[in-house]
Amino acid sequence: ARLFQIAALLSLLAVAIGLLWWTAVRVTPRVEQYRSASQGYTLEIPQRWQGSYRVEETATATVFLYQLPRGGEPQLVVAVEAVSPEEWAAVLDDPLRRTTSRELGQQGGMVYYAHWLANNPYRGSEARAYLTLVRGITEVLDSFKLDMAAADRQSSGGRVCIQVITPARNLATGEVKDFPTPCDVPQGWQVVSPELE
User: Fold this and answer.
1) What is the mean pLDDT of residues 139-160?
2) Global pTM value
Protein backbone atom coordinates (compact mmCIF):
# COMPACT_ATOMS: atom_id res chain seq x y z
CA ALA A 1 0.00 0.00 0.00
CA ARG A 2 2.88 2.36 0.83
CA LEU A 3 4.52 1.66 -2.51
CA PHE A 4 1.23 2.41 -4.28
CA GLN A 5 0.96 5.80 -2.50
CA ILE A 6 4.52 6.75 -3.51
CA ALA A 7 3.83 5.78 -7.13
CA ALA A 8 0.60 7.83 -7.16
CA LEU A 9 2.43 10.83 -5.64
CA LEU A 10 5.23 10.57 -8.23
CA SER A 11 2.63 10.35 -11.01
CA LEU A 12 0.89 13.52 -9.78
CA LEU A 13 4.24 15.28 -9.52
CA ALA A 14 5.13 14.27 -13.10
CA VAL A 15 1.76 15.59 -14.36
CA ALA A 16 2.29 18.90 -12.50
CA ILE A 17 5.80 19.31 -13.97
CA GLY A 18 4.45 18.48 -17.43
CA LEU A 19 1.73 21.14 -17.13
CA LEU A 20 4.26 23.75 -15.99
CA TRP A 21 6.52 22.88 -18.92
CA TRP A 22 3.62 23.05 -21.37
CA THR A 23 2.60 26.49 -20.04
CA ALA A 24 6.15 27.88 -20.07
CA VAL A 25 7.34 26.49 -23.40
CA ARG A 26 4.30 25.89 -25.60
CA VAL A 27 1.58 28.28 -24.44
CA THR A 28 3.63 31.35 -23.50
CA PRO A 29 4.71 33.08 -26.71
CA ARG A 30 8.47 33.44 -26.95
CA VAL A 31 9.51 36.70 -28.58
CA GLU A 32 12.48 39.00 -28.84
CA GLN A 33 12.00 42.77 -28.80
CA TYR A 34 13.37 44.84 -31.68
CA ARG A 35 13.88 48.54 -30.97
CA SER A 36 14.36 51.03 -33.80
CA ALA A 37 16.80 53.58 -32.41
CA SER A 38 16.35 56.06 -35.25
CA GLN A 39 12.54 55.93 -35.47
CA GLY A 40 11.59 55.31 -31.85
CA TYR A 41 9.37 52.23 -31.92
CA THR A 42 9.47 48.62 -30.83
CA LEU A 43 8.35 45.38 -32.45
CA GLU A 44 8.15 41.86 -31.03
CA ILE A 45 9.88 39.30 -33.23
CA PRO A 46 8.69 35.68 -32.86
CA GLN A 47 11.26 33.09 -31.87
CA ARG A 48 10.62 31.12 -35.07
CA TRP A 49 12.24 34.02 -37.00
CA GLN A 50 15.49 33.61 -35.07
CA GLY A 51 18.47 33.09 -37.36
CA SER A 52 16.33 33.55 -40.50
CA TYR A 53 16.34 37.32 -40.92
CA ARG A 54 18.59 40.33 -40.88
CA VAL A 55 17.75 44.01 -40.39
CA GLU A 56 18.87 47.04 -42.37
CA GLU A 57 17.91 50.38 -40.82
CA THR A 58 18.09 53.93 -42.17
CA ALA A 59 16.80 57.19 -40.71
CA THR A 60 13.30 56.59 -42.12
CA ALA A 61 13.00 52.83 -42.73
CA THR A 62 13.64 49.48 -41.11
CA VAL A 63 13.87 46.56 -43.54
CA PHE A 64 13.59 42.94 -42.39
CA LEU A 65 15.18 40.62 -44.98
CA TYR A 66 15.02 36.84 -45.25
CA GLN A 67 18.54 35.54 -44.55
CA LEU A 68 19.13 32.57 -46.85
CA PRO A 69 21.04 29.76 -45.13
CA ARG A 70 23.14 29.00 -48.24
CA GLY A 71 23.77 32.55 -49.42
CA GLY A 72 22.01 34.17 -52.35
CA GLU A 73 19.98 37.33 -52.72
CA PRO A 74 17.97 38.11 -49.54
CA GLN A 75 14.40 39.25 -50.15
CA LEU A 76 12.09 41.58 -48.25
CA VAL A 77 9.97 40.06 -45.51
CA VAL A 78 8.54 43.34 -44.22
CA ALA A 79 9.64 46.97 -44.03
CA VAL A 80 8.48 49.70 -41.66
CA GLU A 81 8.75 53.28 -42.92
CA ALA A 82 7.99 56.76 -41.63
CA VAL A 83 6.55 58.99 -44.37
CA SER A 84 4.64 62.24 -44.68
CA PRO A 85 0.83 62.10 -44.84
CA GLU A 86 1.08 63.02 -48.54
CA GLU A 87 3.37 60.07 -49.25
CA TRP A 88 1.02 57.77 -47.33
CA ALA A 89 -1.92 59.09 -49.38
CA ALA A 90 0.04 58.20 -52.55
CA VAL A 91 0.47 54.63 -51.23
CA LEU A 92 -3.28 54.39 -50.61
CA ASP A 93 -4.01 55.71 -54.12
CA ASP A 94 -1.89 52.98 -55.71
CA PRO A 95 -3.98 49.77 -55.90
CA LEU A 96 -0.91 47.49 -55.96
CA ARG A 97 0.89 49.11 -53.03
CA ARG A 98 -2.32 49.52 -51.00
CA THR A 99 -2.93 45.76 -50.85
CA THR A 100 0.55 45.07 -49.44
CA SER A 101 0.71 47.98 -46.98
CA ARG A 102 -0.67 48.69 -43.52
CA GLU A 103 -0.71 51.85 -41.41
CA LEU A 104 0.81 51.31 -37.97
CA GLY A 105 0.51 54.71 -36.30
CA GLN A 106 1.17 58.44 -36.51
CA GLN A 107 3.44 60.68 -34.52
CA GLY A 108 5.19 64.00 -35.07
CA GLY A 109 3.53 64.62 -38.41
CA MET A 110 4.72 61.29 -39.81
CA VAL A 111 2.78 58.16 -40.75
CA TYR A 112 4.41 54.85 -39.83
CA TYR A 113 3.44 52.06 -42.18
CA ALA A 114 4.57 48.57 -43.15
CA HIS A 115 4.81 46.98 -46.57
CA TRP A 116 5.71 43.53 -47.86
CA LEU A 117 5.95 41.55 -51.10
CA ALA A 118 2.83 40.38 -52.90
CA ASN A 119 4.37 37.04 -53.98
CA ASN A 120 6.83 34.50 -52.62
CA PRO A 121 10.14 35.10 -54.51
CA TYR A 122 11.50 31.59 -53.77
CA ARG A 123 10.84 27.98 -54.78
CA GLY A 124 11.05 24.65 -52.95
CA SER A 125 12.45 24.52 -49.43
CA GLU A 126 13.47 28.20 -49.52
CA ALA A 127 9.85 29.12 -50.33
CA ARG A 128 8.63 27.14 -47.30
CA ALA A 129 11.25 28.76 -45.02
CA TYR A 130 10.34 32.22 -46.34
CA LEU A 131 6.64 31.52 -45.67
CA THR A 132 7.49 30.76 -42.02
CA LEU A 133 8.56 34.39 -41.68
CA VAL A 134 5.75 35.83 -43.79
CA ARG A 135 3.10 34.05 -41.71
CA GLY A 136 4.39 35.98 -38.69
CA ILE A 137 4.07 39.45 -40.24
CA THR A 138 0.64 40.18 -38.73
CA GLU A 139 1.87 39.11 -35.28
CA VAL A 140 4.94 41.38 -35.61
CA LEU A 141 2.95 44.38 -36.84
CA ASP A 142 0.29 43.96 -34.14
CA SER A 143 3.09 44.44 -31.57
CA PHE A 144 4.16 47.84 -33.04
CA LYS A 145 4.50 50.49 -30.31
CA LEU A 146 5.73 54.07 -30.71
CA ASP A 147 7.60 55.53 -27.76
CA MET A 148 7.42 59.15 -26.68
CA ALA A 149 11.15 59.69 -27.26
CA ALA A 150 10.49 59.50 -31.00
CA ALA A 151 8.76 62.85 -30.84
CA ASP A 152 11.97 64.39 -29.48
CA ARG A 153 13.87 63.12 -32.51
CA GLN A 154 11.61 64.88 -34.96
CA SER A 155 11.88 68.43 -36.12
CA SER A 156 8.97 70.80 -36.50
CA GLY A 157 8.97 69.89 -40.21
CA GLY A 158 8.12 66.30 -39.32
CA ARG A 159 11.40 64.71 -40.44
CA VAL A 160 12.61 61.73 -38.47
CA CYS A 161 16.13 62.49 -37.25
CA ILE A 162 18.80 59.97 -36.49
CA GLN A 163 20.74 60.66 -33.29
CA VAL A 164 24.19 61.34 -34.77
CA ILE A 165 26.58 64.26 -34.25
CA THR A 166 26.29 66.36 -37.41
CA PRO A 167 28.99 68.88 -38.33
CA ALA A 168 27.77 71.96 -40.22
CA ARG A 169 29.37 75.13 -41.61
CA ASN A 170 27.93 78.61 -41.17
CA LEU A 171 27.57 79.92 -44.73
CA ALA A 172 28.14 83.54 -43.63
CA THR A 173 31.16 83.12 -41.34
CA GLY A 174 32.66 79.75 -42.33
CA GLU A 175 32.50 78.55 -38.70
CA VAL A 176 32.12 74.74 -38.31
CA LYS A 177 30.07 73.48 -35.39
CA ASP A 178 28.68 70.07 -34.27
CA PHE A 179 24.91 69.64 -33.84
CA PRO A 180 23.22 66.69 -32.02
CA THR A 181 21.07 65.65 -35.04
CA PRO A 182 20.67 66.72 -38.69
CA CYS A 183 17.34 68.31 -37.72
CA ASP A 184 19.12 70.67 -35.31
CA VAL A 185 21.18 72.28 -38.10
CA PRO A 186 19.65 75.80 -38.45
CA GLN A 187 19.03 77.79 -41.61
CA GLY A 188 22.17 79.46 -42.87
CA TRP A 189 24.28 76.40 -42.02
CA GLN A 190 25.28 73.59 -44.40
CA VAL A 191 25.89 70.01 -43.29
CA VAL A 192 29.55 69.12 -43.84
CA SER A 193 30.26 65.72 -45.34
CA PRO A 194 33.22 64.06 -43.56
CA GLU A 195 34.75 63.01 -46.91
CA LEU A 196 34.89 66.66 -48.01
CA GLU A 197 36.80 67.84 -44.96
Assistant:
1) 66
2) 0.62
Q: From residue 6, how far is each of 3, 9, 18, 85 by CA, in Å?
A: 5, 5, 18, 69
Amino acid making up residue 69: P
Reported as a single tens digit per residue, the pLDDT across 152-186 is 444 444 455 666 677 888 888 888 888 777 777 77
Among 161, 160, 179, 159, residue whose Cα is nearest residue 169: 179
Would the pLDDT of 36 be above 90? no
Pairing label, strands 145-146, 110-115: unpaired
